[in-house]
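Exam revision sheet. Question 4 asks you to relate a sequence to its structure. Input first:
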Amino acid sequence: MYRTLAAVLAAASCASVAPAQMDMAAPLASTEPVYTLEQAVAAAGGTAPATTAASAAIDAARAGRNVAGLRPNPVVQGQVENVIGSGPYRGLRSAETTVGFAVPIELGGKRGARVAVANAHLARTELQAAIIAADVRLQVTQLYIQAVAADRRVITARDQARIASDASKAAGIRVQAGRASPLEQQRADVARINAEANVERQSRLADAARANLARRIGQPINGTLDSGLLDRLPTIATYGPMPPVDTSGTLALAAANAELSVADAGVRLARANRVPDLNIGPALRRLEATNDTAAVFTVSIPIPLFNNGHAAIAQATAQRTQAEALRRAMTLDVEQAITDARAEEANAATAARAATGPAVAAAQEAARIARIGYREGKFDQLDLLDAERTLAETRVAAIDALANYQNARARLERLTAPAPTSTISGETQ
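Answer key, structure tokens:
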């Protein structure tokens, strides 16, 4: 144990005075084109079923707005009086035929209120489409990061397998030379077998991650992934209290505001529906007895005796109160989520900087010293295996830390995504 501690201390001192070594788990240069994250997001946005459904919902809402702006259809009326009676009204001798049409006239601003409701629904539908697009971007980003991290783990596993194979060969040479017991050969073989099995396991996970990404974007991945995405860390660490959270303009709060707008429009429509509509209809009447024609004008208006609209207004008002309360609750939830996401991103960045900096360099130097010492007979095999295991765990921890930061940053961007500008031009008059 004291030899391992000495190796670690020596590694730390060497890392402080020597230039940092290149991480052996870093991806190799490739001549294949790089399939970037933005390309993946663009491809997923055009093929995602949720995006197609959101586009159809927008089309339906626009059609609904057109329907809301239409005027009521006139009604053609026909009436025959004084037929099939007794005396002079027997048969059709005294028949009076009236033909005309009735025109409904909406009062109280019903049409404008309907259009306002339709506009509110359209705005909400557009926001829901933007929310779906932001969710698709987050899902693709997480899958992309997962695939890149899986490729990094494969590279690390292959490198550790190569190191384990070299250590097994070195142990065989020592055993044949009589400098070590056969037990060291068995230990080295076990480490080599485990390392090779880990390569297979990590390769399967990488293939699965790439397949999941290709399935999400709806097409094969042409080229290599942007492995440098994991290494993009903030250059300066931020300390001190966090700035206040401003949720105005975010997608989450805009969705709550859209629900409140729908409720406001519903109250306006309920009040407009309280006003009775008029039905005015000119007509022509033909008198069979004299063969004359006369004009007839009809005006009808419903009497709000049983349904005066108060119940509908009370219902719409209660729904607005509910929407306003939900908006306040949503504001608190979004502020809390953004605060937590900021802290998570900052902590992940700190962990990533620590894991990819001195920790990896010290583990690499400790493993190098342990290999040299083992070949020269200064360290035993357990010290070498412990140093190699520490290096492998440090590399994997560094990859996990980088992936955790990128995921945390993606979640924060999703929470703070700005709401799009509405395309609604105005109400139909």
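Marking note for examiners. Residues 228 and 367 are 25 Å apart (CA to CA).
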